[in-house]
Design goal:
Elements: H1 3-28, E1 38-43, H2 49-60, E2 65-69, E3 88-91, H3 94-103, E4 107-111, E5 117-118, E6 128-133, E7 150-153, H4 165-180
Parallel strand pairs: 1-2, 1-6, 2-3, 4-6, 4-7, 5-7
Helix pairs in contact: 2-4
């Protein structure tokens, strides 16, 4: 396949993703908040696969809403329809997002492997807003400029201290649901123990 054909195929795939996004965004206005006081903030992520996957996990773990900062579209296909089910809030910049989540009483939390305490050791705030930055460049803001931002880290035991953003987000959502979840109606045990 020549370079021109590859570029044309990539252009068609992007156009198809944009169509899927517009169609599902119209349905997103009917989405119902999840059962947990957990909010996910996606800060300038790439519009490819991770955002859709994060919506899928957000729907599975009962996330209240997902805030998208600096993201004007993404491919919802990897989310398997979850974008239609989880409320999405779009922001031009983190400042606007921070104002909204702070006004709602949420504590912003970022993951920093070298600076944060262990995600598994402490108690997560009841109203947590986990912020996940761009896959290559990280978050778009200086945490020191925003009051109350907490730093945590996911314990890792390998030589490479890095996780895919959708994997990291899923781990965070699981840990939050384990700590704060009402497991009635849950389709599995989050504690590792079977129910009586």
């Amino acid at each position: 396949m020549g370079a021109h054909k590859i570029r044309m195929q990539m252009k068609r795939e992007r156009e198809n993703a944009q169509r899927r996004f517009r169609r599902q965004k119209q349905r997103n206005v009917l989405a119902s908040p999840g059962i947990h006081d957990l909010t996910i903030v996606l800060d300038h992520l790439k519009p490819s696969y991770n955002i859709g996957k994060i919506f899928r996990s957000a729907q599975a773990f009962g996330v209240k809403e997902v805030h998208l900062v600096g993201i004007d579209f993404f491919d919802p296909a990897p989310g398997m329809g979850a974008f239609k089910a989880v409320p999405a809030v779009f922001h031009d910049d983190f400042d606007a997002c921070y104002t909204m989540i702070s006004d709602k009483g949420y504590t912003p939390v970022i993951l920093e492997p070298d600076k944060g305490g262990s995600l598994m050791d402490g108690s997560l705030p009841q109203k947590s807003a986990f912020v996940f930055g761009h896959e290559e460049f990280g978050i778009s803001f200086d945490p020191a400029d925003y009051k109350g931002v907490q730093r945590l880290a996911i314990p890792q035991y390998g030589a490479v201290q890095s996780l895919n953003v959708s994997v990291a987000a899923s781990i965070v959502m699981y840990e939050y649901a384990k700590q704060h979840g009402d497991h009635q109606g849950c389709s599995g045990s989050l504690t590792g123990r079977s129910r009586p």
